[in-house]
Amino acid sequence: LGIGKELGRIFIAVAAGMIPVLVYLHFCSLWWHDGASLKYLGAFLAVCAVFAAVVLALYKVLGLNALFMQWFSRRKKSS
């Protein structure tokens, strides 16, 4: 369950980061009418997926979750 929550948070963060870029690409695609934008969109989504996987792997390997939880609990105590 904990892993699912973490994955959900990371997915939401990645999706939120992608929204402005997707909007930008959408407007670009209104100006190009040759389908090139779809190829670029596919490549962009692939890059995002790889980036998210790398971030997730680093997150797991480096134990950033534990560090973040310590930092967050300290912030809560101090406020």
- 3D shape: elongated
Count, helices: 3
Terminal CA distance reads 29 Å
Number of individual domains: 1
Q: How much helix, percentage-wise, in residues?
A: over 70%
User: Which structural category do the helix and sheet elements fall into?
Assistant: mainly alpha
Mean pLDDT score, rounded? 73
- Low-pLDDT residue spans: none
Q: What fraction strand?
A: under 5%
Instruction: Give me the strand/helix succession.
Output: HHH
The radius of gyration over CA amounts to 17 Å
The total count of strands amounts to: 0
How would a crystallographer describe the biggest sheet? none
What report would you give on this structure?
- With 79 residues, the protein is mostly helical.
- The protein has one domain.
- Helix content is 90%, strand content 0%.
- The protein is built from 3 helices and no strands.
- It has helices spanning 2-31, 36-61, 64-78.
- Helix 1 (2-31) packs antiparallel against helix 2.
- The mean pLDDT is 73.
Structure keywords:
79 residues, mainly alpha, 90% helix, 0% strand
At a glance:
The chain is mostly helical. It has one domain. It has helices at residues 2-31, 36-61, 64-78.
Write the layout of secondary structure elements.
Blueprint: H1 2-31, H2 36-61, H3 64-78
